[in-house]
Write a structure and sequence with these properties.
This protein is an alpha+beta fold. Helix content is 20%, strand content 22%. A hairpin with a 5-residue loop joins strand 2 and strand 3. The protein starts with a helix and ends in a 19-residue tail after the last strand.
Length: 235
């Protein structure tokens, strides 16, 4: 059921009495349904942010609990995943960062690596358990002199995807710039050469094939958030 149909049914049952008399499809009037849903989504973001505890860890699992085979997720088939030249790859940096010198894969791998076996939860309802390894995002942000007082960290990807997360979630100890999956370097379908792994958020907040990272106080939005999905999207 799409958002509009859900809202109209709620109105029909008297759950939204103030909107029940509105003509949601009249092009001559503002779309009150979308306005209402946007307001509720914004409220939901604020509540989730207020409830988020940066010291609470997402569940971890044993190696024998890893889902095999792993499941691919994206808005395109696995065969269309972008292939990034790892030899020439450089992670571009922008925004409120002191040292914006791009980073190579070798430099990222030279930093302390952290491994985790956590659950990936898709907004569509399915979930898998996988093992990811990489650099703690919080450590990386401190290393490049990012202004940790800023509100957002944004990401842009080789396939045109983009998203952003809040700074407290970026500094969470389980949030990593993943370089390996299941004990081996990432492959294109699973986000090579660098992806974000953030087990405290839903799957679409885990961008793959990241080519740019920025720190900002200006709301950057995201591919799905700009289409009406909840932005904070804690899991």
């Amino acid at each position: 059921m799409n958002r509009r149909a859900l809202l109209l049914r709620a109105a029909a049952f008297g759950l939204l009495p103030d909107l029940a008399g509105c003509n949601f499809d009249d092009p001559e009037h503002p779309d009150l349904a979308d306005r209402f849903l946007h307001a509720m989504s914004t409220w939901n973001d604020r509540v989730q942010a207020a409830l988020f505890d940066p010291n609470t860890l997402a569940p971890t699992f044993r190696p024998d609990q890893i889902t095999r085979p792993p499941r691919f997720n994206a808005f395109y088939p696995a065969s269309q995943a972008p292939v990034v030249d790892e030899a020439t790859y450089r992670l571009a940096l922008g925004g409120q960062i002191q040292d914006k010198t791009p980073w190579s894969l070798a430099q990222l791998r030279a930093l302390p690596q952290k491994s985790q076996i956590t659950r990936f939860i898709c907004v569509e309802g399915w979930r898998v358990i996988g093992q990811w390894s990489g650099v703690r995002l919080g450590l990386f942000l401190k290393h490049i002199g990012a202004d940790l007082r800023c509100r957002y960290v944004s990401f842009r990807c080789a396939d045109g995807y983009y998203t952003s997360i809040d700074m407290p979630s970026a500094l969470h100890p389980q949030t990593i710039l993943a370089l390996d999956f299941l004990g081996a370097p990432l492959t294109p379908p699973f986000g090579a050469p660098v992806r974000l792994r953030i087990p405290t958020k839903l799957g679409f907040k885990n961008p793959k094939s990241i080519v740019q990272l920025a720190v900002t106080n200006i709301y950057p939005g995201g591919y799905w958030a700009d289409q009406g999905y909840n932005w904070f999207s804690g899991s």
